[in-house]
Write a structure and sequence with these properties.
The chain is mainly α. 77% of the residues lie in helices and 1% in strands. It has a single domain (3-321), classed as Farnesyl Diphosphate Synthase.
């Protein structure tokens, strides 16, 4: 395990172990095929960033309870369901070097597995009467779906403004991290102002997280070789939007034509990336990302210092400084 992440987890290490057991129990099935797939999902777990956000948020607001484990399990079930469905939609056969469910068991089974995970999430919340957590997470799923569809709609016309871009990423990416933090807080306190504060905190981090992903695509100095995946998928990200806003008509038309018609042409895509770099789009996106990180840190500034608060600040730095 990455040592930085291990240090971040230290104040909630035993609670993470308890969560993992709670999560494993929540996905068990009497259907042999389904249980086999759930076993595969459990053992290919990623960094569990969202459950960590849940547990740290809860610890910052009070003492972790059984309801906190319910919140963390619900977050992970819904997140995993969306990843399974996303791989089907994107026809992706790998995620972070590991075979996707649809690659191993085909699309029909993958869709049904995603549905099963969603249903387990609902039941975990209902069985534990965690109605407030269910409401928070249901809103996040709604927002994520709207964000994905809004992005698809705008990709067809390539008419995304900064305002629309932020609307998309606020819904698509930030809503789940915001919900994770709010659910963690809600699991230990009834203070609506505090829960709202943690939602806003998570939203700011989620937006910064997505902008970091935007920068990956352009081969920022700290990241390495450009990937250009967003360009190939006709996704209008913040560096490109900035370049378009500040380009003359000829350059703007060239950029749009590259995204629209030549997004698989390596030479033209490289030229687009050079233009975005020269426009200051990378620096601008970095500045906006830093602004949202500062907003997040300001929101939790009044939270009493302690191991969980320290780890949360380190988690923010880890998320923003990561290289993959």
């Amino acid at each position: 395990m990455n040592k930085a992440l291990q240090d971040i987890k230290a104040p909630i290490a035993s609670e993470l172990e308890a969560f993992e057991k709670h999560f494993r129990d929540s996905v068990r099935s009497r259907v042999a095929l389904l249980d086999k797939i759930m076993h595969y999902i459990v053992h290919r777990k990623g960094k569990q960033m969202r459950p960590i956000f849940v547990l740290l948020s809860a610890r910052m607001c009070g003492e972790i309870t059984q309801k906190t484990y319910t919140a963390a399990s619900l977050v992970e079930l819904l997140h995993t369901a969306t990843l399974v469905h996303d791989d089907v939609v994107d026809d992706a056969h790998q995620r972070r070097g590991v075979f996707s469910i649809n690659a191993l068991w085909k699309n029909k089974i993958a869709v049904l597995v995603g549905d099963y995970l969603l249903s387990r999430g609902l039941l975990v919340a209902l069985d534990n009467k965690a109605y407030d957590i269910l409401q928070i997470m249901s809103r996040a799923v709604r927002d994520m779906s709207e964000g994905e569809l809004l992005q698809i709609e705008k990709a067809r016309k390539l008419d995304i403004t900064e305002e629309i871009y932020f609307d998309i990423i606020r819904k698509k990416t930030a809503s789940l991290i915001a919900a994770s933090c709010a659910a963690g807080a809600s699991s230990v306190t009834d203070d609506e102002e505090m829960i709202g504060r943690f939602y806003r905190f998570g939203e700011s981090i989620g937006i910064a997280f997505q902008i970091k992903d935007d920068l990956f695509d352009y081969g920022d100095i700290d990241v390495g070789k450009p990937r250009a995946i967003d360009i190939q998928e006709k996704k209008m990200t913040l560096p490109l939007i900035y370049a378009l806003q500040n380009a003359d008509r000829t350059t703007k038309n060239t950029l749009i034509r590259t995204v629209e018609k030549y997004n698989k042409d390596k030479k033209k895509v490289k030229e687009l990336m050079v233009t975005v770099h020269q426009s200051g789009g990378i620096q601008y996106a970095q500045q906006v990302m830093d602004k949202f990180v500062k907003e997040a840190l300001d929101i939790i500034e009044e939270i009493p210092p302690g191991p969980a608060t320290k780890s949360m600040k380190e988690l923010i730095a880890y998320v923003i400084e990561r290289r993959d």
